[in-house]
Structure formats: C-alpha cells, structure tokens
Task: structure prediction
Amino acid sequence: MIVRARKVAAAALTTFVLAVAPSVGSAALVPTQLPNAAAQPDSSVGDASGTTSAVPDTPMTQDGNPFLTLSIETVAPSTVTTSSDPFVTVRATVTNTGDRRVDDVSVRMQAAAAVDTTAGLRTSLTLDQDRFERVGDFVTVADSLEKDESRQFDMSMQLRSTTEPSLGIEVPGVYPLLLNVNGTPEYGGTARLDDARFLLPVVGLPRNPGEMDPTAPGAMPLPPNTRNPVAMTVLWPLADIPRLAAGIPGSVDERVRLIDDELAGELATGGRLDTLLKAVEFATQPGLDPDGRLASSLCIGLDPDLLVTVSNMTRGYLVVDNPADPASTTREGTGSAAAAEWLSRLETIASSTCVTAMPFAQTDLGAVADIGDPTLLSSAVSAPADIVDGILGITSTRGFTWSTTGGVDEDTADALRTAGTGTVLVADNSISPPTSAPTSLLVSSATQPSDTQQTETLAATQYDAATAAALAGVGDTPSTPALTATEQRFDLATDSRTARLQDALGAVNFHALVGTDRPGRTVTVAPPQYWTAGGDEPSAILSTVSSLLRSGLATPRPLAELLAEPTSGPPVTGIDAATELDTGTIGLVQSQSARVDTLMQSLVEDPQSALTPRLYTAPLREDMLRALSTAGRASAASDDTGVMARDRLAAIRIGLDTIYGSVTVLAPGGVYTLASEQSPLLLVARNDLPVPVNVLLRVDAPPEMTISDVGVTQLPARGSRTITVPAEVDDTRNLSVDFSVTTLDGSRLGEVSTVSVRSNAYGQALAIITACAGALLLLLAGRRLWHRFRGQPDPADEGYERP
Result:
C-alpha cells in the first residue's frame, strides 16, 4: 500500500541549536544532537515566488508519530458551479500529536492540474506536494501549539485571478487540492509537518472578480460543455454484515436469533441503513426529480439476507450471548419497531424503483464456485431474486449478478452461466482487453465463442473501478476494493471523513466533465455492496448525480436498458481477487453443505404442516453462504468479520450435530428375550425434528443372529414409531446387537443403541432330542400294536388285565 508522502516516517535530519552567551567572554553552548526528532527544513517557507521545494518526507517523533495532524472539516462549496462564490473556503483543524511544543504553525492552500484519467482520481492524491504548483500564501494559524492542543481555522482562496494568488482553475474539471502545514518543533527547525488532500469538482466557473472589466470574456461565468452528456447508471446498495445466528433451522413460529443487536441501530432514525434509504426517498421525490431522471437511472441493489433478517425482526427476535453456540442464552432484541418501519418504507420505494438482488449475504462467488455444490450455487445466485420478490411483493431485475469482489474468474463465470445469469457486473479493471463498450461477451481464455455457446453465454458490463474505490472510502469504515491497483492505494486513515467524501464527489463528477469529445460515453457508478456511508454523505452523492442529470451533463440509462443491449465490445476474459478464505474454511463449508443435502433428501413433506423440508433446511444452507460473506472483508473491520466467520462455522457444526442427534433408536432397558429362535425384535425410533423423516435401520449383529432388512421407515414429526425387525437366532447365549438409524444415503443419525438379546431356542441339541423322543414314541407304539395284532398281552400291561 502506498502511504502518502506526508505520513511516511523518515530519519529526520540532525539539528543543532546554538546559543550565544550574552556576557563578554562567554563561550557558545555545545551543539546538542537530537535523536530522530528534529524537523526537516522547508526552503519554500516565505518564498515570495510561490514555488515550492520538494520535501519527500515529513519528520516524525521518536515514537513514529507526526508532530502535527491536519484534518479537513468542511469544504465550501463542495462542488463549484457557475452560481458559486468565486473562492473556496476550507475549515480545518490542526492538532499537535507530537511529543513537544510546535511554534509558528502556518498553512497554505495549493492546487494541482486537473485530473485527466480515471486512475488519476486516486494517484493524484498521492502526489508529492511540489506537484501542487498553484500555491497561496502561508497564513499563521497558531503562534504555538502545546502537546495535544488543537486549533481550528478557516482558509479561503480564489478560484482564478490575474491580480492575486489563486488556484488557477480556468476550466471545469476535477482538481486535487492540498493544505500544507508548516511549523517549528521545539528543539528543531521549520519544516512541512503534514498536509491534507482532497478533490474539488468544478462543474462550472463563477464570475472572475479579479477582472477589471466585468464584461470581459475572462470575467464571465463559464458553464460546462453539455453537448455530449454521459449515459449514467447508478447502483445503490442496501446490505449489511450477516446478523442471523448460525446453526438454527427454519421454523414457523419460533423467533429468530441474531448474533448482536447492531442492526437495530442501523435501521433506526439516523442509522446507516435508514440514511441510505432516506437519501433515495428524498432525492427521487417529485419536487426534486420532476422528470424522474434520477429515479430511472437508479437501481437499488438488495442483499436478500438483509431482507430475511429484517422481515424476521418485525415479529420479535432474540440476541444470543455467544454467536458460536446457537443454543446459548439470549436476551430480547430492541429493533422490531424500527425494522417494521424501515421495511414498510422500502416496500414503498421498491414499488416504483428498479430493484435487483445481490448474491445472498454478499457471498464470495469464487469460493462458492470452488466448492462445486449446485444447490449452494443456486442459493447464492438464483434464489435471491425469489426472496426479494416474495418479501417486497415486486418483480426484481433478473438474470443479472453484481460481483461481490469486483471480478469473476473462469470457474466463477462458468458457474454463473449454469445458474442462469445473463450479465455480470464487474470492475472495469478486471476484464481484458479494456473496453468502453457497455457490454462484452465474457469467454474463457482457452476458447473463443462459437455458435454452440449461444445458449450459455455470459455478458460482462463494467463499472468504473476508480470511482468505486473513491466511494468505498466514504463512511465510518473506509475500505479499498480488492482489485484496486497498487499505485491507487493509500492509507485512508490519514484522511478526514470530509476529505474522503470530497474524493467521492470528484469521482462521480469526473465522468461528466472529462472526455466530452468521445461519442457514446457511458458510466456505471457502483459503491461497495457493504457501504458504510452515513450522515449527509448518501444525500450528497445522490444530489451530485441529480445535478448532473438536471444540468444536461448526464442522461439516465436504466439498468434494464443496459441489460437489453447486445454485446458490442470485443470478447473479454475476467480475473478475480484472490480469496482470503483458507482451504480449511472452504473444505469445512463443503462438508457441512453436504450434510445439509443429505438431511434434505431424507426429510418428508407433511401436507398438514406449513413447515416444509425446504423451509426447514434453507437457513442452514444460507449459513454456508453467510460464512463465505465478503461484507467488511476489505475494510478495517476485516479482523472482526474473520472472527464472525469462524464463529458462524463453529455454530453451523454444532447446529447440524444437534439436528442429526435428534433422530435415534431408543435403547430398551434390561435383556430382550425372544420367545423362539425366529421371534421378531421390537424397537422404538424417536424423531424430535418438527418435520417427518425417512430413515434406514442399520444393524451390527453377531454371526449367530440374522436380521432381515426392514427397508425405509418414516418417523412422524416430534414422534416415535415401533419398528418390527425380523430376527433369527441359533444360539442360547446373550447376544449384543447395535442398532442405529441413518439417512437414505447411509449417514448416521443419533447415537448407537446396544440391545442385549437372549433366545429360548435350543438350536441343534433341541432338534436331536426331539427326534430321539419321536423315534422312541414310534417304537413303543409299534411294539404295542404288534402284540395286539398277535393276540398277545403286552408285557407293559402286566398287572393291568381286564376284569
């Protein structure tokens, strides 16, 4: 990452302080060497010529902190127009963040040449201060600042003038501005100690008060060139970090659980999501958008996971104390009323505005493609539109996927084709070769499009990556998109929130002001899907777009119109940002997703119940996508999102283990005695799930026992069933038999139950004894008959003669 020149720690030059004794004959004090803390001299201080010397680095204290920190608070006007004042006023605060007093704190304003490329929207903010050649005079804002002391000041400078220092802005454009602060740290020399940079969009120039003749051409306001407006499409994201607790299946009447209650504040008045929605409501009202230009150019991107969460919050919800354990203790959520009001407002605005569904939970599409689960892919890409339409009662734009990372690789592109996506929105720096065409055919680098590909084509349309990077810097938690080029990266923490907003306004205006001689100009503006803009920032950005449309610098291009255009650019190939998920995480998601598929195949739909197998397992499958979410991954909150992903995966495993353990065979107490060698076993299987389930009986019996297969057994929801198991035993010993139930593909459910079986059968010995007894009986009966036929008394009848 590039760190701006003012923030780079450098080995400060050694400064010597000489003191001469006032009395005659006194010797000069011994020069004292300062350790890495002295300031670097700035030869431009007091230079009447207006030139600056190149000072590559600003000095730092021994602790690595800057001596002074400059923060911009307001810029007026934020966008210059023909009706603006002919000067720019900046309010800023300078703070002593060093370890000693700083004297003679002075500031001046500087300007660089207008940005002429989209990359320059970022790189111009990393230029050394000597590239800001149009300079004003240094103005002392504080005679001295003690440690931790601050001073607020206002500084103004004319846009153009022939009689006094000015910013030298003669034509509309986007101009980088800089505030340069100098000071003299105690024990050091005068040096440039910090600066603050931002972009100033100049849509039109106001009158020039420096011209003596107010009717002269150079004194008149200069409007922008509106002969060739840019066709503009704006995506407006409404999304959040996944909040639903993981590992909890679907239910009809149970309240959902959230991992925290932060979403309640985001939905409430003044919250981030409230502000984002309110900006659209305000900017598209008939009084401000009478022709519907902004409304037609705007399309709201909705995360279906957010809608599912908010919709469930309206019915009351709980907040878990331990996000990694779905069964942990809970407390009442506080955002039900705010959720209901926000959802109602969204339904109203969505009924008259373009809406498209984002990938579920802003999941990493590359990771989903790597997992290779078609059902998971469908839940990520195809199902979101159904969710959005079902909750809001609208028909959203379909066949369109907004890439969560800004790009797609070959495997992801193939997955999107199979999922029914017709057009994918990516960053313009993620496709090769670069093209200005609205849409291009996205192909594999190894193959070229042919007639056989027509049924599975995928078009790529792009948004401006530099503008997206500027918009990503707006808000509480600034971020840098993953595909941003190295030379366009810098530490956003060094900029004030106002400066980052100015950069975004400059980027949005840039496309309307530059390249007006190019035919067929188009641009798609797309902030990051998880966007932390708040306060007045969303309204300021939409107001800028609205002003461009009203002034004729831009024309609306509805998303539906863009998607209907045939591919006109050259075939392109795409790249994607490397996933930050390790193979272990992806492997765990893959294995748990397979367990959900296995469960789904065994569940049975009950016509008498509103809870279907699909509704029951949907949250479990969606948990996998939430674990792969990209929300917040590119921001300073990435560490927190990493912890959330690990907690979510742990909760998914616990939740599925609990579900699998809810179907089991109940172990009978004592010894099971069979009446005969072929008596059946009677077992009881219990299902504690709220939906019926088909199971198979798995038996692990010794060789002396033969168990017949009983086939598929359906267990009722929250009930039990007796299973008659035909068995044959040829041994009289006590036998231990293990019974368990499994899903239809053989995955074990519940615990193994061990049954002790004893049979009253005697086996082979009983058969021999019976045969011998039968033979003896026949022999004795035959003997009696023999004697009777011969008229001889049977010896056995002696003593029993007839009377």
Observations:
- The chain is about 25% helix and 25% strand.
- Confidence is low (pLDDT under 50) at residues 1-56.
